[in-house]
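A reminder from the course coordinator: this example appears on the midterm review sheet, so study it carefully.

Given structure:
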């Protein structure tokens, strides 16, 4: 009986000593102190993360066509446009790598036209200015040369593309429905095997640099014959799936 009385008295004393406002003030003070410590520890890392370059890839143009009526020397360029988000650091030592391949067949095989080819900045025909790396300032974009395209029939055996294939034994019938993509790489033009309209190839683009993580983009390029407004057959090269980011860097 005496023990029960002591327990009751202890409980009453504990209840009387409880000061709820003071308790929550102490908790809030402890949380504020903890938050200040966390901010001090990670402030620099957060600032670096928010300022890290954020690269994106667009195409220029989205498509290009060659009317059949123009038979001599028809060729054109498909470029990529590399941009860096506003408010970020300048992207340094930027390089662009491209892989072009067909869709995977039922047996798991696929044709690889070029693999991890280094693309070049500036005009590929000016060897004094062609570079495989460059800088991309914040809020700025610059072109990267991807490929020269054309249909062999429109060359009338006078252009560089047609000579390339006729010298390889391609006859007139094969050439009448043939297309070519010449990837403008640092090691020179990469010439894939003969393509036949219609065709579709997958394009994988990896952008690397000194001060940001590598970013991977994937798109799809197709070639078709289609009539224009005057029903003149046009060999058309167009991006049927624009390059989209498939893996993100750590820049947010």
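Designed residues:
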């Amino acid at each position: 009986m005496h023990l029960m009385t002591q327990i009751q008295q202890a409980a009453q004393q504990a209840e009387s000593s409880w000061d709820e406002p003071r308790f929550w003030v102490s908790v809030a003070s402890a949380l504020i102190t903890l938050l200040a410590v966390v901010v001090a520890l990670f402030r620099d890392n957060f600032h670096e993360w928010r300022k890290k370059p954020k690269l994106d890839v667009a195409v220029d143009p989205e498509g290009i066509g060659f009317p059949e009526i123009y038979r001599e020397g028809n060729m054109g360029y498909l470029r990529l446009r590399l941009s860096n988000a506003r408010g970020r650091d300048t992207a340094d030592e930027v390089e662009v790598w491209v892989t072009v391949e067909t869709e995977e067949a039922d047996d798991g095989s696929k044709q690889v036209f070029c693999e991890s080819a280094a693309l070049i900045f500036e005009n590929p025909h000016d060897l004094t200015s062609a570079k495989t790396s460059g800088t991309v300032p914040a809020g700025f974009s610059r072109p990267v040369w991807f490929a020269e395209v054309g249909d062999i029939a429109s060359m009338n055996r006078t252009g560089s593309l047609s000579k390339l294939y006729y010298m390889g034994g391609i006859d007139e019938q094969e050439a009448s429905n043939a297309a070519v993509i010449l990837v403008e790489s640092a090691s020179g033009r990469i010439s894939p095997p003969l393509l036949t309209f219609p065709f579709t190839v997958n394009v994988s683009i990896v952008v690397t640099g000194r001060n940001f993580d590598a970013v991977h983009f994937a798109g799809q390029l197709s070639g078709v014959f289609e009539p224009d407004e005057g029903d003149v057959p046009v060999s058309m090269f167009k991006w049927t799936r624009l390059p989209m980011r498939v893996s993100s860097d750590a820049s947010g």
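The longest strand covers residues 233-247. Residues 155-168 have pLDDT under 50 and may be disordered.
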